[in-house]
């Protein structure tokens, strides 16, 4: 999953609850650190097993200091 925001953490939670191992990538480490708690609350509200959060791996994406290339078309 790329992005740990509203949709990213929600999709990660649904996939983990279904038994999948999920890797969540985000450049914002503060947002990334919130994923386990947000998913636990999501699973709790759905009455699902919160152990699914153990199947979620978090990976910080380093921010690039180089701007993307300008299209030449």
Shape: elongated
Overall pLDDT metric: 85
Radius of gyration: 15 Å
- State the low-pLDDT regions, or none: none
Largest sheet: 2 strands, parallel
Helix run count? 2
Break the fold down into its secondary structure elements and pairings.
Layout lengths: L5 H12 L4 E5 L2 H17 L10 E5 L13
Parallel strand pairs: 1-2
Output the keywords.
alpha+beta, 73 residues, two-stranded parallel sheet
Summary, kept brief:
The protein has 73 residues and is α+β, with helices and mostly antiparallel strands. It is built from 2 helices and 2 strands, in the order αβαβ.
What does this structure look like?
- By secondary structure, this protein is an alpha+beta fold.
- Helix content is 40%, strand content 14%.
- The chain has 2 helices and 2 strands, in the order H-E-H-E.
- The protein has a two-stranded parallel ribbon.
- Helix 2 (29-45) links the parallel strand 1 (22-26) and strand 2 (56-60).
- Helix 1 (6-17) packs across helix 2 (29-45).
- The longest helix has 17 residues, at 29-45.
- The radius of gyration is 15 Å and the shape is elongated.
